Amino acid sequence: MRGDRIGRVTRTGRRVTRVTRAGRRAEEIVGAPDPGDVDWPEPADLPAAAERPTPQPAEQPAAAGRATPEPADEDRPDRPPDPAVPPLTYPEAVAALTARGRFGIRLGLGRTRALLRALDDPQAGIRGALIAGTNGKGSVQALVSAMLRAAGYRVGQAPKPHLVEYRERIVVDGSPIEPADMAALVARTLSIADRLPRRLGPPTEFEVVTAAAFAWFAERHVDVAVVEVGLGGRLDATNAWDGGVAAVTNVAMDHAEWLGGTIPLIAREKAAILKRGDLAVTGAAGEALEVVRRRARRMGVPLVETAPLPVLGMDRHGVRVDAPGLGDVRIGLLGRHQAANAAVALGVVDALEEAGIAVVPAQARRDGLAAARWPGRLELIELPGTPQPGRGSPGETSWTADLGRHGGQRRSVDLVLDGAHNPAGARALAEALDELRPSLAPGPATLLLAIMRDKDVSGMVERLVAAVALREARLVATRVTARGMDPAELAAAWRAALERASAPAGGRGAQAGRRGAPAERRGTQAGSGGPGGRRGAQTGSGNPGGLVDIVPSPEEAFDHAIRQAQAAGGPLVVAGSLYLVGAVRGILQSRGLVR
Q1: What DSSP string runs through 39-56?
Q2: I need a labelling partner for 257 at 20 to 30 A (CA). Which of 17, 188, 432, 571 fits?
Q3: Which of 303, 338, 274 has its CA nearest to residue 142?
Q4: DSSP SS3 for 586
Q5: Can you tell me the distance from the alpha carbon of 366 to that of 370, in angstroms, rounded to the nearest whole number?
Q6: CA atoms of 247 and 464, how far apart (whole Å)
Q7: Cα–Cα distance for residue pair 552/546, rounded to 1 Å
Q8: pLDDT in tens, 561-585
Q9: pTM of the model
């Protein structure tokens, strides 16, 4: 569908189907909801959008690329510190926030609303998009924010979770809040949180951070906010805000203990971010889509349904897609699944425009999609090896020397970081690795893996084992937090998945290896584990891809995995948990290898 069909309207029963500027179909309800519609009850204290004060749209930029000026000093006067608020340093603020983790996950909006009211409702004057979904919501918020910034808007983002530093959760114009500002903001928010009525219970860590983010957005006079839902949607702290646009990227099995054990139940929780007066976008399919549609009907919300954009090509620099009204554009994020995320992101930008919140011209959309970055999500980093003769500057220091564990001539390494913390994410990673394989360093891959105990570990490793790019991979199993699966158990799950994948159709276990590997190689062996040595146990399951190293310390596991990748010549893939990705990114930052 192309732009020449813009504005076509057809009526089918009680729905009005519109074709948007980007060629998407939107269904707007023009009658009463179906009598059979069933959904979660609305919280009694949540007014309809028509009853809430509607903030005026931000002044639109005259042209794409216009930088929004910093607020004048008189707009942000330096306030003397509140004598009732004890000052905190940044480390103290982070410690105070994480200490509230003792209150656990306590879904509900009452505490967040009370906290926001005590902060003078900073969210009431902010418009933008709230994004939910099982996978892809982080990529969508990164893509939407990049397009808005390319159009000259000051954008507030609340991505989740942080990878290395806590302040990554509160972002304005692509930059995390400064440590001193974060400390003052947290001190103020915590002082209010401690004074809330006891009947509400103490606000959780996530609720405090959510309220603090909106307070910072208001103080920085953001034009548009793009906020990522934390868990579910209906009772997530972010749902105390209604920016006018809501999106559900997709729905898959995850967090079943909180959201329900079926796709429809999980979809109902996520679809509850659609509120009366909103415009909505979804990339959901199947029974999840039916739930989102039902919610939209019940709320009288126009719903745009998107499908993945046609993929024209991909390489190590991103994905090329055919976008309606834009033609051949590059997405600066890796993986075929970004074609689905980009479709949702463009739908969100259309909705922001229709709602009078922001106007993003075609060139700003192209520039934003190409410039988008989302650290730790299929992020490719080329780690340089030892300079070879005729390459690099005289006296240049090899990054391997910074490890302090070994020297000599070492190859560069293609490092792929991806959280991939559920089966759907693992499948997307596996497919992306197979398609990127011609663009990555040749040779067998090395996989550094850690998975939380409460995840579908079997489902994740089954999907990773299915990747051709990981068929001969060496696994390095580790654990980052106490919630992580024991590395030995993770190694056992990996070997079991390999056995199932290599079993002939006539029976399981009749053939241990792939590609004719001799059965006598099976067993446990102790040894150096390859160049540079290693700690832990190594086992072989009858094929090169069955080699598993168990290294409990994440930093030692990363150094060991790097050495294995250099010896094998292929890429190093770090996956299974954003905690692990964050730990690795922290190591790289401490060694000056990434920003």
Answers
A1: -PPPPTT---GGGS--PP
A2: 432
A3: 338
A4: helix
A5: 6
A6: 29
A7: 19
A8: 999 999 999 999 999 999 999 999 9
A9: 0.76
